[in-house]
Amino acid sequence: MTTRAATTASAISVRPARTGDVRAMQALIEPYVRRRILLGKELVTLYEAVQEFVVAERDGELVGCGALHVLWEDLGEVRTIAAAEGAVGKGVGHAMLEALEERARALGLSRLFCLTFETEFFGRHGYREVGEEIVDDAVRAELLRSPDGGVAEFLDLAHVKPNTLGNTRMLKQL
Known about the structure:
Aminopeptidase; 8-stranded mixed beta sheet; globular
């Protein structure tokens, strides 16, 4: 899967991440962690989840990454979208989100969730703020069994509240 978007400088190419990209992905994510926009990811966690990620390249350089995590049969979460400092506002996030949504559709998902500070960005892409429960009680009971911290954040569990303060819950129907 490759998605291309034009920028003022040159084309952005989005492709599935490979293990050789993981250290560069961590370097892209780290400035957002320092600014408390994204949660830090251990290197081992990124390697374990590499198949969930896409990366954006421009002129052979990695300029962005983002992930799609399946939560349930019809529901996924867009996670860890990060663009290099010089690439912000140049279509990198848009290209990655488009690729992740394409991947979600291919998997049969009909809804995408995100927990974000970037409400304007996601709003421009059709996501809307949600406050209500996104899943019914039976699905919630199943999701409570997941050891994934992101699922706990999705469920808005008390023990992850420090991670989610100030974030907005958003949802898009595909």
